[in-house]
Amino acid sequence: MPELPEVQTVVNTLRPRLLGRTIQRVTLNCTDIVQPPDADLARALTGRTIKSIDRRGKRIIFTLDSAEQFYVHLGMSGQLTAVQAKDAPFAPHTHLVIDFPSGVQLRFRDPRRFGGVWWVGDAGDIAGDMGPEPLAIRPAQLARRLARTRRAIKTALLDQRLLAGVGNIYADEALFTARIDPLTPANTLAAAQVSRLCRSIKLVLHRALKHGGSSLRDFVDANGSSGRYQNRLQVYGRESKPCRRCRTPIVRQVLGGRSTHFCPRCQPADKKRSAGKRSA
DNA sequence: GTCCATGTTCTTTA
DNA sequence: CTAAAGAACATGGA
User: How far is the CA of A21 from the C1' of C14 (A)?
Assistant: First the structure.
């Protein structure tokens, strides 16, 4: 469920409920969602106060009063909610529960278990080898990074080392908005195309954020509310439906193992490249 | 039963 | 060595 707009929406809705609160109890129902495996999360967290909650890429970073940190990655189906324990039924696959004195519970639920909790401690190494933030990147910087790979631009946008936070939905949406064929090799994009793409990425992410993210299946914010941007998607999940711009049916094609949706008319293949493909 | 899924990481191949 | 493609992970819904 989670790309940058969804993750940021979770952060925004968690903050008012958790900032400044002290962790009273930690209940771990499934130990294999914690990394590193030998981290004693309960011991590390109990009695600490949540000082800040931030996002980096798709990671939700909690900083404690001790300056130690941990982060949650929602994977594909993860949910992080902050609820009043007494009036929230307990859903299956709730792997971690953190109780606060106010009766609020922070719950991490993740049926597919692709997500998890990473204890960082005071190592300060949250970013790892993640790429720059999509909302802050400048066109020239994006161009430099794209020039390093011949992969299809769609595939390149999903590489978190190249750019951290864009996922399958917003990569497709941004390429549609920029009118770029997803199959274009990243290093063959003209400077003007990269500028347009840079602007489109920000536009699409900002819009999605404004609408609380996209709830295609599992996504809810910390209050349990769904996003609304799924209703405004231009190409993602719209195979065979008419393009909202030109009515041409949207095409779905598997690229790098992921579904890719685009309008063949609004996002035409580069003439030289499609000619090359035919002769090959 | 089949196919598909908002993500990441490991393995295989060239 | 690197770059890229594919499989794997676990679960559920259509």
Answer: 42
Of these residues, A179, A258, A265, A273, which one is catalytic? Answer: A258
Q: Write out the H or E segment, with its range, that includes residue A94.
A: strand A94-99
SS3 call for A72: strand
Which residue from A193, A156, A159, A162 is spatially nearest to A178, judged by alpha carbons?
A: A193
pLDDT tens profile A151-175: 999 999 999 999 999 999 999 999 9
* pTM passes above 0.90: yes
Q: Where are the alpha helices (DSSP H) in chain A?
A: 4-18, 41-45, 139-146, 153-157, 168-178, 191-210, 271-279
Judged by C1' against the alpha carbon of A77, the nearest nucleotide is: B6
3-state secondary structure of A169: helix
Q: A239: Cβ under 7 Å from strand B?
A: no
Q: Which bases of chain C are under 7 A from a protein CB atom?
A: 3-13
